Model the fold of this input.
Amino acid sequence: AQSVAQPEDQVNVAEGNPLTVKCTYSVSGNPYLFWYVQYPNRGLQFLLKYITGDNLVKGSYGFEAEFNKSQTSFHLKKPSALVSDSALYFCAVRPTRDNAGNMLTFGGGTRLMVKP
Amino acid sequence: GAGVSQSPSNKVTEKGKDVELRCDPISGHTALYWYRQSLGQGLEFLIYFQGNSAPDKSGLPSDRFSAERTGGSVSTLTIQRTQQEDSAVYLCASSLRHRNPHEQFFGPGTRLTVL
Done:
């Protein structure tokens, strides 16, 4: 069975500084990896996904994530944080094998707080 | 509509009552998923529908939970004899297809409170 770990419950960053939200995964075979963001009282919004190809994936709102197969990680990054980036971030994995099920397995979420 | 819609947005019920939660997926999306977001538990997969195929029910926590998808579109999640531990936000998502890694689009959720 696949699993996702987000080791930090909360990340605090000053506005303008770079941010990293960590994610590691465990899956049989190759993964599809996703990042979602949840703003207060809103549904989950898709940020970006890794399928294949370049390890650095660019997504919405200036976010990017780097797939590292050897470390089984998919950390979310942004060069310069905004106060409006403050939200709950979820990493998710899906195995690529067709018979492995199609649901996403989510990490526990990391709350990002960007201070002015 | 433009996105996934869910109703009601909030539901308060008494322990032991049955509840129905509704999801309208994005038009044309053949795959539909239900997840549960509990305080301190993260997001938990419940059930998945793909077209007219038999649903994947592997995430349903008990036989009190069931779901239907009529006409390949609208879905209803039913919880019978609700318990306090059922209190959570129930999220519905849809995607274009189950094959290929199409991203899932989530609705705003239904917040269920069982008193």
About this structure: The mean pLDDT of chain A is 91. DSSP finds no helices and twelve strands in chain A.
